[in-house]
Design brief:
The protein is mostly helical. Helix content is 53%, strand content 0%. It contains six helices and no strands. Helix 1 crosses helix 3, helix 2 packs across helix 3 and helix 5 crosses helix 6. The model has no long low-confidence stretch (mean pLDDT 85).
């Protein structure tokens, strides 16, 4: 059997909000989830899932993906990182990473500190 994408991993892409709004309008015009999905060239399963979400929450908006903010290994050290930045506004992310390791023993990449500071 031939698999054109064998060995490759593809992540799903979220449906655009405009498409979700059109789906909601079709449902409000008394179409079934499957019929609305067919008009928008979506799978029947997606149509049923969106219709169920609309029925339960009143919205077809995207659900949050990933972990909620504040639950990573750096969450407990947020105050320390903020204090370090307050003391020296020109501190770099690698310097913050080194200071965190020296003070607490926690090893964190500079990119992880940047993500944690944006939460």
């Amino acid at each position: 059997m031939f698999y054109p994408f064998a060995g490759k991993c593809f992540l799903s892409v979220a449906l655009p909000n405009a498409l979700r709004a059109r789906f909601k309008a079709y449902i409000e015009d008394d179409l079934s989830g499957r019929a609305a999905a067919a008009r928008l060239r979506l799978s029947a399963a997606t149509g049923v899932r969106l219709q169920l979400n609309l029925r339960e929450t009143g919205s077809v908006a995207m659900e949050a993906r990933g972990l909620p903010p504040g639950h990573g290994k750096l969450a407990a050290h947020q105050a320390f990182l903020e204090e370090m930045v307050a003391q020296d506004g020109d501190i770099t992310l690698p310097e913050l990473s080194g200071a965190l390791k020296a003070a607490t023993g926690v090893v964190a990449h500079a990119a992880s500190i940047m993500v944690a500071s944006n939460e």
